[in-house]
Every structure is written in C-alpha cells, then in structure tokens.
Amino acid sequence: MRRPEAAPQAGRGILACRLARGAARLSLVLAVLAATVLFPPPSAAQLLQPERRVEVNAMEYPWSAIGRVNAGGRGHCTGFLIGERHVLTAAHCLYDPVVGRWRGAIELHFIAGYQRDRYILHSKIASYSRPETYVYNPKPDPKAASNDWAILTLAEPLGRQAGWLGIKALDSLMQSRVKAGDALLLQAGYRRDRAHVMTAGWACALAGVIQGGRLLLHDCDVIQGDSGSPLLLYADGEFFAIGLHTIDLVLKEKQHLGGVLSLSLFHPNGGRADAVRALAATSVRWAAGQLPGAGSAAARVPLTTIDNLLAKLGYLQLTAGGPSGDARSAALSRFQDENGLARSGKPSIAVMGHLLHASTP
User: Fold this and answer.
1) Structural element, H or E, at residue 239
2) In degrees rounded to 5, what are phi and psi of residue 59?
3) Which of 55, 86, 218, 250 is the most buried (most CB within 10 A)?
4) How many domains does the chain have?
5) Cα(60)–Cα(47) distance, rounded to whole angstroms?
6) Does residue 174 sit in the same domain as residue 118?
7) Is the model's pLDDT at 254 over the cut of 50?
8) 194 and 51 within one domain
9) DSSP string, 161-227
10) Is the domain of 245 the same as that of 191?
11) 218, 252, 267: which is the final residue of a domain?
12) What are the residues whose beta carbons fall under 8 Å from the beta carbon of 85, sequence distance 6 or more?
C-alpha cells in the first residue's frame, strides 16, 4: 500500500538533486565573479549576433602552426607550435580519465595542417613537461585551469615546415588597443563538432581577468576539442599567441566564456617559476613567429581565408576552381581603395588582418 508514496518521494529526491546541482553551478559562478576583474559586459546585440567563424585552410600560415594533439586513439585536443620542436597545449589533454593516469609521450601524436583526414606534417612526441602541481579535474575549475599547461617536445623539427607562432604577453596597453578595435583577438582549433577541419573565430572580446591575472576570460565561441588552442592576437601586421585555452564557463544563459591561460605565465619577468624554467629549457624565445620554410607544403600566405573573407564582404565571387589571380587582385584593390588602405592588390597576412577587421560588426 505504500507504492503510491514512492513517486512523490522519488520526485522530491530528483528535485533535491537538481537543486543541489543548480546550487553548485551558482557557487561556481559566484566564485568566478568574486575573483574576477570584469570588463564591460557584451551588449545584447553582441550576444545575439551570428557566429563569426569560418573554416580555414590548415595548410596556410598562421593556421599551419596550429594542429591536433591526438591522444592514444581516445580523443584529441588542439595545440600550437611555438618553435621548431615545441608545442603548447593543455595539460588535461594528456591525462587519461578512463584509466586514471598520465599518458606516456609514446601515446601522443601532433599533426599540423590537418584537414579532412589529410595530413602531411606530423610528428611523434619525444617527451613533454607539465606542472607537477596540476591536478586533473573533469569539472570547470578556474583554480586548476590557471595551472593547466604542457610543453610537448616533438621528435621531428616540424616547425621548419609548418612555421610557428610568436608568443606575447597581453599587457594593459594592448588590452586598451583590443578594446578600441586597434588590435584583434582570434581563436582557431579543432572543435568537437568539426573535429576534422580547422575553424577560426574572431573579434573576440575580453570579459575579465581572474586568478591574479593568470586566466583571461573571452567570448570566443569555444567547445570541447578547442582545449589547448591559442588565443591569437593580430596587431601591427603580425599574429601572436597570447593565451592557451583551458576551460569553458557559463556565466549567463546566453553568455559562454572561454578561459585562457595567459602566456605571461612563461615570461622571465614576473612569470611562474616552473613555467619559466620549462620554457627556458627549450629553444623558444619571446619573438615574432616564423613562416613555413621555403619549399614547404604549407603556404606562407593564407589565400583561402583571404578569398573567403573577400567573398563574405561582397568583393569577390567564389567559383568551384577558386578565383583567378587577376580576380583576387582586383577585389583586393577595390577593398583597399574603399577602406583607405594603400593599394597593392597583393594578398598577405597583413591584408588578411585588415579583412578580419572589416568583417567585425
């Protein structure tokens, strides 16, 4: 006769569980907000605008310096080259939660220029370094995220062919330039929903700084698979990596924020001791990046991205075989004339930066 009471009791149990989960999420949000230096929130128009994300040709620089970190056939993350033999990625990508152990270097493989199961530039991992103090946590944890980095040492000097990204610390001056629209933030990686193509999003806005400046919050659209990807800065005609994506947070129903580990962590002036030592043990230097070497299969100019952006802005009609050089040159010249730029008609990384700026609402 007690069966009729079972359903209400179960309902109360389910409700209690939901309330507990809701309280846990709220606690995380409040903890993040309490420790966050917030910038002005995005406007309603920014939150509702169509996603600014395009497929890019992974065999064109700077995208060629970004690749997939394949982990023992059990998933992938993104990583990026910062030197001939060194890749930055997130430490949690190297942990096997099923078995409960750190993967060995032999289980890891880095692939640059990966697009639809086709890859030419790849290397096994000879070794890697990570913070001994990092503790894997499957749930979003800002404290753990601020310690979530790893440097992979490749068996092959892949950077000579793929190129690599320069690394830069995002100082207050550059933050002001980003806010003023004089510099641009981007993110590119191998998302879970499009794991076999690289996509890039741009015009990301900084949303805050937490964990004593170690973690930057931004509104790029990032999901699983983007972990380990770079937060890119385009300024003064060059691309730099300024952060390493480690965590996703949801602060509002329509506002998902990505958390990136600031690369200032590795800077010899003010960085964290173990990160500074790990980078100093490599050949990586705080300098501009490097284009793919002469004769490499990776292109030094991102023609595909430039063509797609010209088409997006209405300057170029894309055809099945791709535009002719003359058509591209004419489109670029018109774009430069209408935007007050010196006319060259020639594609370049700097021109791509101008196109990205022009594509920003």
Assistant:
1) strand 238-252
2) -100, 20
3) 86
4) 3
5) 30
6) no
7) yes
8) yes
9) HH-B-EE----HHHHHHHHHTSSEEEEEE--GGGTTS-EEEE---EEEEEGGGTEEEE-----TT-T
10) yes
11) 267
12) 126, 153, 154, 156, 157, 158, 159, 282, 283
**Integer distance in angstroms from the first to the last C-alpha of the chain?**
65
Residue 34, pLDDT score: 37
Whether 20 is covered by a domain: the verdict is: no
Q: Same domain for 51 and 199?
A: yes
Token representation of residue 159: 């950077």
Three-state SS at 160: helix
Across the range 181-201, mean pLDDT stands at 82
**Integer CA distances (angstroms), 255 to 74, 186, 217, 250, in order:** 30, 17, 11, 6
Residue type present at position 353: G
- Half-sphere exposure of 70 toward its Cβ, with a 13 Å CA cutoff? 15
**Does 319 lie in the same domain as 183?**
no
CATH of the domain at 221: 2.40.10.10
User: Which structural domain, as residue segments, surrounds residue 323?
Assistant: 303-358
Most confident stretch, 2-6, 162-166, 174-178, 211-215: 162-166
Q: Could you report the per-residue pLDDT of 88-103, keeping only the tens digit for each?
A: 999 999 999 888 999 9
Q: What is the pTM of this model?
A: 0.83
User: Residue 43: is its pLDDT beyond 70?
Assistant: no
232 lies in the same domain as 107:
no
